[in-house]
Amino acid sequence: MGYRAVDVDSVEPEPDRPCECRKLSDPGELDAAAINRFRAAPGEQLPLAYHYHETQQEAFYVLDGTLAVETPDRTYEVPADDLFVVDPESPQRAYNPEDADAPVTVLAIGTPPAAGDAVAYDPDDE
């Protein structure tokens, strides 16, 4: 058995992201899931543009604020303490709306960890 406490603020943010992204699964050495904490100011989107994952299922747990998730059918508003799940091959774009009053903080869990399996999605191609 092994245990680790991860101080989120000690994890360096990922460079070149449209909002603050701290990859929490790397320090915890988890190999079955990707765990990231995102903090997005009003008008910022979470790490990727409109996209889907071929194999990864994603879960967004909103810690504070309200997360907007755009899908081909509608835009969902996910308030604090709610969970939003995206199945593989389901296009989505998560963001904090420009007219939001405050940043949104989200814990994102993806399984399996799928670096590089994100596929850009253009709703105009439908």
Automatic annotation (TrEMBL):
Matches recorded under InterPro entries: Cupin_2 (IPR013096), RmlC-like_jellyroll (IPR014710), RmlC_Cupin_sf (IPR011051)
Biased composition (Basic and acidic residues): 14-24
One Pfam assignment: Cupin_2
Residue ranges of domain Cupin type-2 in the record: 38-104
Disordered: annotated segments: 1-24
UniProt protein name: Cupin domain-containing protein
Organism, scientific name: Halorubrum ejinorense
